[in-house]
Write a structure and sequence with these properties.
This protein is α/β, with parallel strands linked by helices. It has one domain: P-loop containing nucleotide triphosphate hydrolases (Rossmann fold). The chain contains 14 helices and seven strands. A seven-stranded parallel beta sheet has the order 3-4-2-5-6-1-7. Helix 6 links the parallel strand 3 and strand 4. The longest helix has 14 residues. It is globular, with a radius of gyration of 22 Å. The protein starts with a helix and ends with a helix. The model has no long low-confidence stretch (mean pLDDT 90).
Length: 249
């Protein structure tokens, strides 16, 4: 007999028309077991799938996603609606506060300024109606927790509420947290997990940062080197591409 998680994997693959990778399975299994999960894998590795399958994983309910940019939210809302899910991003004139509070949506997207910094939305999140349906909290582009939320002695934070996302944990103590990023050093990863109040038994999923198709070379050149001579290969190549596009004989 197949294990329950294997049946869920099959249902996810059928729903999305994909084959799950090992790392996706590891992340989904962690969430299925109510563990906090940190996924630090490269762009295009399918990180979003680990929360897009939440309605299957948790038998519907609401997934709360904190994202840094409205464009990201709109793109994901459109994608999820196309898959037949109910999704919404808050911060528009069409905010369905009643529907969000009462669990009418599978996915609710919002910025930390609203979800954490706005008293009205905090009240919605901590309401018993929302809590009864809240299954997962996701922090997309989680590197912004440190890069945008933390300042320095010389500069204030770019968007300080990113450093306060962890406060949502106090509102939903038993809901797992999923952090997704493609750019977090080991030091920043620890800072992010601490800031988001990850539990001690959390799961960390990483891939090798090496990129076979990227090469970085450093050369030293004299200050008086002629720019045209130095970059002749780039200028020649760019000029050739331009002429080709413009059909210049």
């Amino acid at each position: 007999m197949a294990a329950p998680i294997d049946k869920l994997f099959l249902e996810i693959c059928n729903k999305f028309g994909i084959v799950l990778t090992l790392k996706q399975k590891q992340a989904i299994t962690g969430l299925f077991n109510f563990k906090d999960v940190f996924v630090g894998t490269k762009t295009g590795s399918g990180k979003s799938m680990t929360y897009e399958c939440a309605p299957i994983l948790f038998d519907n309910g609401t997934t709360l996603i904190i994202a840094p940019l409205t464009s990201i939210m709109k793109e994901q809302v459109d994608r999820l609606k196309g898959l037949g899910y109910k999704a919404i991003h808050i911060g528009t004139e069409e905010d369905d506060i009643h529907g969000i509070r009462n669990g009418h949506y599978h996915f609710v997207f919002g910025s930390p300024e609203l979800l954490v910094g706005n008293e009205m939305w905090r009240d919605v999140i901590k309401s018993s109606s929302f809590q009864n349906n809240h299954r997962l909290t996701v922090v997309d582009e989680a590197h912004t927790v440190v890069q945008w939320g933390h300042g320095s002695a010389q500069e204030s934070p770019f968007r300080e509420w990113f450093a306060h996302i962890g406060e949502l944990r106090s509102l939903s103590l038993n809901v797992p947290v999923l952090a997704l990023t493609a750019t977090a050093s080991p030091t920043n990863r620890k800072k992010i997990m601490k800031s988001l109040c990850f539990k001690k038994d959390s799961i960390v999923i990483l891939d090798n940062p090496d990129r076979q198709n990227i090469k970085i070379t450093v050369i030293t050149i004299p200050n008086n080197e002629d720019d045209e001579k130095l970059f002749h290969w780039l200028i020649k190549g760019t000029h050739g591409e331009y002429r080709a596009r413009e059909h210049v004989p």
